[in-house]
Design brief:
Structural class: mainly alpha
Number of helices: 6
Protein name: Metal-binding protein
Helix content: 55-70%
Oligomer: single chain
Order of helices and strands: HHHHHH
Largest sheet: none
Organism: Coleofasciculus chthonoplastes PCC 7420
InterPro entries: DUF2227_metal-bd
Shape: elongated
Strand content: under 5%
Keywords: Membrane, Transmembrane, Transmembrane helix
């Protein structure tokens, strides 16, 4: 679900179900197989930051709605402290998650590049080399 191929109308994109609309702006900006979508570390980092920005935006909207319609028992500062504490307390887990996502992306990118190279090699190998058989044009007037 977090594949480098989220920049296409692909299986990973379809797996997002009714939330796939989140990835439409990403698809418009990212060129397929670019360093920004398939690059080592960079591609995964960009996808995490992109999804994180959506999560923050949607959570912010949810918090505003909660604040407008009911009394919120905590302040924004308390929320910020709780999130910071969670990030620090589970730092090893976050690193392991990133490594797992990156390994999946690396395997995908290597698979893409090797299969493309192999297909290109096979096409070049199958092309028969033709001898030049150009005819001399004669003018018919």
């Amino acid at each position: 679900m977090f594949s480098p191929d989220l920049d296409l109308y692909s299986r990973p994109f379809k797996r997002w179900g009714w939330l796939r609309w989140i990835w439409l702006p990403y698809q418009k900006v990212m060129r397929h197989r670019s360093i920004f979508s398939h690059g080592f570390i960079l591609g995964t980092t960009i996808r995490i930051l992109y999804l994180g920005s959506w999560i923050i935006a949607l959570a912010g909207i949810g918090l505003v709605i909660m604040y407008l319609f009911q009394a919120v028992p905590w302040t924004g500062e308390e929320l910020k402290q709780q999130i910071t504490r969670s990030l620090l307390d589970y730092q090893a887990h976050w690193i392991a998650l990133f490594i797992g996502l990156e390994l999946g992306a690396i395997i995908h990118s290597i698979s893409d590049w090797t299969s493309s190279t192999y297909k290109r090699y096979q096409r070049q190998k199958q092309k028969p080399r033709r001898k030049s058989t150009k005819r001399k044009r004669t003018s018919r007037r």
